[in-house]
Design goal:
By secondary structure, the chain is an alpha+beta fold. Helix content is about 40%, strand content about 20%. The protein is built from seven helices and eight strands; from the N terminus they run E-E-E-E-E-H-H-H-H-E-E-E-H-H-H. The longest helix has 20 residues. The chain is elongated, with a radius of gyration of 20 Å. Bound molecules: zinc ion (ZN).
């Protein structure tokens, strides 16, 4: 369950992520009036088995049945886990396609489950936040280029810091870099650490070495990159910044 919105007198509109269709919007009629029908199931983060019916031509499915399969209790009890969990759900809710290709939907669903379980298992720090954000973008088909020049495909050599163009999704080599472009300066070591982060499963991300100035660069890069694709600031981002960044990142 990605998002729950109250609708009318007694209904709920639900945004779900499914392994068949990616995002699915469904209405649960009378869900707020009748406590029995969907009792305890229609909450954020819950993994459900559902029956939903969609008439042809209708944008929204109607939820008929929902059974709770997995509830991530620790994720709700801890502020940092909850804040990062909400941020990931909002990112997925904004960027997951409705009716995506089946292979992509399965991959996105599998990523989401393992990311939320990793959060249920341990409280996140700024490093886990950045790496899960990167992995979420990757699972959504929005992986930034981290290893080669985004324009010519050439190797990144020479200077320690390369210009990274958020709008083009990657760094530039010395021959493609032109003065006056609106680029973020990112060290090659930071890009390499992020590339390593793409090779580990969410529960193994604790092994990726990313700290200090590189972590700060990575956080800025991922935040700009996500914002560029979403097109606006996510509601949960400011809260997450208060909970996680201030505790872990040096000022500046
Ligand atoms: Zn180039």
């Amino acid at each position: 369950m990605l998002r729950v919105v109250e609708f009318g007198e007694s209904d709920l509109i639900l945004h779900l992520l499914t392994p068949e269709t990616s995002r699915l919007t469904a209405i649960a009629r009378h869900a707020r009036r009748s406590r029995k029908r969907f009792a305890g199931t229609l909450d954020l983060f819950n993994r459900l088995r559902i029956t939903a019916v969609r008439r042809s031509g209708s944008a929204m499915a109607r939820l008929e049945q929902a059974t709770l399969v997995e509830s991530l209790a620790e994720l709700r009890r801890d502020t940092a886990r909850f804040a990062l969990g909400c941020y990931l759900l909002e990112l997925l809710g904004r960027l997951a396609p409705e009716g995506g290709a089946r292979a992509d939907s399965r991959r996105l669903f599998a990523f989401t489950l393992s990311a939320l379980r990793a959060l249920d298992a341990r409280s996140p720090d700024a490093r886990l936040r950045v790496l899960l954000e990167l992995r979420a973008l990757d699972a959504l088909g929005l992986r930034p280029e981290l290893e080669a020049c985004v324009r010519c495909g050439g190797a990144l050599e020479g200077s320690e810091e390369v210009p990274f163009l958020v709008a083009e999704g990657g760094p530039l080599c010395t021959s493609c870099a032109a003065a006056g472009e609106d680029a973020l300066g990112i060290h090659l070591g930071t890009l390499r650490a992020l590339a390593v982060g793409l090779r580990f499963a969410p529960e193994q991300l604790g092994r990726v070495a990313l700290s200090g100035p590189a972590l700060r660069e990575a956080r800025l890069l991922l935040s700009r990159f996500a914002r560029f694709h979403v097109g606006l600031e996510l509601q949960s981002e400011r809260f997450l910044n208060e909970i996680i960044s201030s505790a872990d990142l040096p000022a500046g």
